[in-house]
Amino acid sequence: MTLAEYLERTDTTLQALGERLGVSHTTVLRWATGQAMPRGRARMEALAKATQGAVTAADFFPEAKPRPGLAETQAPFAAEAQALGLDAAAIAARAVQDAIRAEKARRWLAENEDAIEAWNRWTESNELPLAEYRMF
């Protein structure tokens, strides 16, 4: 719940909450309207305590709310995969392995792009080493 919602639902005044937290009513107003945020962990914990846990850091930082993990996002497909006789866990593991392999290859190429280009330029101007001894 947002701080503004808490203040409205509990009929708590800006002044009263400010006194509990040791800040001005103006500061509480800025927090409630989103113009500012409580700074520091101690201030956030004090706010959560003053609101009996109704307002927490997650209400000020939406990204602090836990994102659903792989299991939660894939749950809708689990029953269908099972009905089709598919091993969803093995398929997911293979997909993750493939994604990791592809990303590592992409990063390696990006990191070594200059060296590869230098080798290609050298080869174009000097031919392959020991080319005169090749049988083909």
Task: Write up this protein.
- The chain has 136 residues and is mainly alpha-helical.
- It folds into two domains: 3-64, Orthogonal Bundle (434 Repressor (Amino-terminal Domain)), CATH 1.10.260; 70-131, no CATH class.
- Helix content is 67%, strand content 0%.
- The longest helix is centred in the C-terminal third of the chain and has 24 residues, at 88-111.
- The protein is elongated and about 90 Å long.
- It starts with a helix and ends in a 10-residue tail after the last helix.
- 7% of the residues are buried.
- The model has no long low-confidence stretch (mean pLDDT 87).
Task: Looking at this protein, list some descriptive labels.
136 residues; 8 helices; 434 Repressor (Amino-terminal Domain); mainly alpha; single chain
CATH arch. level architecture of the largest domain: Orthogonal Bundle
- Strand content of the residues, in percent? under 5%
The SSE string, one letter per element, is HHHHHHHH
Helix content: 55-70%
Main beta sheet, described?
none
Shape: elongated
Number of domains: 2
